[in-house]
């Protein structure tokens, strides 16, 4: 049976800690080009480019893969940490 990536992602569950996102963009250090790359790189589609050319992150569906953390680590543009215990992604493998 063939599944689309969206169907596989839908198998996961997320518990969001409201008001305390674990991935944030530091607007004072934002490297727009690195962040724009994340729009295409993030496997969960957490990054979106706005009409005015800025990039926003909504980490509610984040899989905690760390890709954005690695790509942007030299820029200092991201504040990244694992969610508080009991929150974040719950992977399902069935
Ligand atoms: S850690 Fe991975 S899934 Fe989460 S926002 Fe970064 S690139 Fe996307």
UniProtKB/TrEMBL annotation:
Q: Name one GO molecular function term.
A: iron-sulfur cluster binding
UniProt keyword annotations, A-Z:
Electron transport, Iron, Iron-sulfur, Metal-binding, Transport
The superkingdom of the source organism is Bacteria
Instruction: Indicate the segments forming the 4Fe-4S ferredoxin-type domain, all copies.
Output: 53-83
Summarizing the function annotation, the protein's role is: Could be a 3Fe-4S cluster-containing protein.
In its UniProt entry, what is this protein called? Answer: Ferredoxin-like protein
Organism name? Pararhodospirillum oryzae
